[in-house]
Amino acid sequence: MITVSVKPLFTAIFTLSLFLAIVLLSPSSPFSSVPSNKQAGKSDIWGVKRLVEWRPCRWWIHGPRIALPAESNGYIRVDCYGGLNQMRRDFCDGVGIARLLNATLVLPKFEAAAYWNESSGFADVFDVDYFIQQMDGYIKVVKELPPEVALKEAFHVDCSKRKGQFDYIESVLPSLLKYQYISITPAMSQRRDRYPLNAKAALCQACYGALRLTRTLEQKAAELLEAIPKPFLSLHLRFEPDMVAYSQCEYPGLSPASKEAIEAARGDRKPWTGELARTWRKRGKCPLTPNETAFIFQALSIPTNTNIYLAAGDGLMEIEGLKSIYTNVVTKSALLSGEDFLNMHGNTKAALDYYVSINSDFYVATFFGNMDKMVAAMRAYKGLHNTLFLSRRAYAELSSKGLDGKELMQALWLAHKEDFAMGRGSALPDCFCDFKS
């Protein structure tokens, strides 16, 4: 008969249990790095299987290219207004229009408003030689007009109501043939689906295949990208006084400084009240606050220790609502220094945010503006699909039903899970086609 001493066995079991407890509870343990906001058994939003992916359409990338006519109908310059990404959108539309009308493209004129505190032109932001090289075969591009044309002032053609192929052929082409040098500002809402494939291909190539930052600006953007702790999420958060004022939304509980800034930006735009205000908010018209953004992040099980690059301009309000929960937030002004950065303003700073965002591990936007559409499409072009637009409508509708806490979080998870799985908002259909996984 074999006898076993109970005391040594008990001592061994106790020692082993103590060791496991120390390992599991140690700050350096891999188990302790699981974020507290992640619900048991549920991964974050990026773990959701994508059912639809957006990729460049074959007719643009691999389709036969229609040869350019031997003779051009004249010269077109695109006049671009607003912020960098609005001007980029207008310019891309202008390239498509110029190809549609068999015109030679003149480098665009950037008409930045005083609000953007920027006077840089196209060549200050984008690599002109690279653009011309990449557009070879799609459209003719010139840096300078021939002497006999350069002496003329471009005849401006109003394109505010021109949206489709036949609009331009019937209303703009005659002016191009008559004056030989015209300037246009494309309408805000283009019907690109009505363009022939050669014009659509030129537009797509210009926007996603030919626009590269200047060497100097790209070096500065690469420096910024290198300085951001990895992996990281780029967040385009929109909660500036002018945007809130423009939305005509009311936000209770804001700081006195935020209220004062919004009121100063309102002008004649008064906020909606009563039932109109509730309806407006439920339609998703009100920008998400930083605090609401943090709440949705937690609902999506995005760890609170995530490295976040804040792709935003100056003037963000209530930012502590995000930083108090997500503490690893960095900005370009905190990571870059030097006189070259201090001299940057609207367009060039926006170019830095664009570059970082299209190269980030994850991209999240609280809006669906010009930058967001361009970044999402460029990420799809590069094969980066961890892109998500937070749903202002889902947040407003679910909150209006009285949901809060864990119940609201679960409902927001389901709403965003479906959006991410279906690739909603991750690219625009003009140049991209959906492929089932």
Instruction: Give the oligomer, counting copies of the same chain as homo and different chains as hetero.
Output: single chain
Radius of gyration: 26 Å
Biggest β-sheet: strands ordered side by side in the sheet: 4-3-2-6-5
Structural class: alpha/beta
Distance separating the two termini:
65 Å
- Shape descriptor reads globular
Write the layout of secondary structure elements.
Elements: H1 6-25, E1 52-56, H2 58-61, E2 75-81, H3 84-100, E3 104-111, H4 122-125, H5 128-134, E4 141-142, H6 147-150, E5 155-157, H7 165-171, H8 173-179, E6 181-184, H9 197-210, H10 215-227, E7 232-236, H11 241-247, H12 256-266, H13 274-282, H14 290-299, E8 307-310, H15 320-323, E9 329-330, H16 332-335, H17 339-342, H18 346-358, E10 362-365, H19 370-381, E11 387-389, H20 392-400, H21 405-421, E12 432-436
Parallel strand pairs: 2-3, 2-6, 3-4, 5-6, 7-8, 7-10, 8-9, 10-11
Antiparallel strand pairs: 1-12
Helix pairs in contact: 3-9, 5-9, 10-18, 11-12, 14-21, 20-21
Protein name: O-fucosyltransferase family protein
Subcellular location: Membrane
Membrane topology: Single-pass type II membrane protein
